[in-house]
Amino acid sequence: MTLDLMRQACLIGGNWISGSEWIDVDNPSTGAIVGRVPSLGSAETRRAVHFAAESMAQWAARSAAERAAILMRIGSLMVEHTEQLARVLTLEQGKPLAEARSEIAYAASYFAWFAEEAKRVYGDIVPADNRAARTLVMKQPVGVVGAITPWNFPSAMVARKIA
How many CB atoms are closer than 10 A to CB 76? Predict the structure, then answer.
């Protein structure tokens, strides 16, 4: 059985990109092909990093409340689509459906948690070497990162890193 929920392209810079070569995604418990993804390379990776860096300024310009609302919405959408997401997770990973549902809920909880934390990212004033001075520490994004996620909790761990 195949489930047509997996896009056969990658979103890069607002455009859906697909390559000339594909990677089959199989269900490890049955061997059935459940989807396919494009096999993209270094040029597409550089392009994705470029667009991510470009969009970071727009994200940073948003207020904490706006960023929190976006994160909360992502978590809400995950909860709303738990059944579909759990089914995809089960098919591509072989995890029992009940565990997949739990993982989707766990993943969504990271978005809710960090949405609330986004409102409380305060700076700190710390003592400096000079007794007459203080140092202001502001927590700000510094750039694009690459994230590696484990196979056993792919949705939850990628959600943790993204949120």
Answer: 14
Are 155 and 104 in contact by the 8 Å Cβ rule? The answer is yes
- Report the candidate in 143, 120, 116 with the shortest Cα–Cα distance to residue 54: 143
Whether 37 contacts 68, CB under 8 Å: no
pLDDT at 1: 39
The angle at the Cα of 42, spanning 5 to 148, to the nearest 5 degrees, equals 60
| Integer CA distances (angstroms), 88 to 54, 81, 113, 141, in order | 31, 11, 24, 32
Q: What is the pLDDT of residue 6?
A: 53
Kindly compute the dihedral angle of the four CA atoms of residues 60, 147, 161, 43, in this order, to the nearest 10 degrees.
40
| Residue pair 24/10 in contact by the 8 Å Cβ criterion | no
The pLDDT tens digits of the residues spanning 8-62 come to: 788 899 999 887 888 898 888 889 998 888 999 999 999 999 999 999 888 888 9
* pLDDT tens column, 89-104: 999 888 899 999 999 9
Cβ burial, residue 92 (10 Å; 0-12/13-18/19+): buried
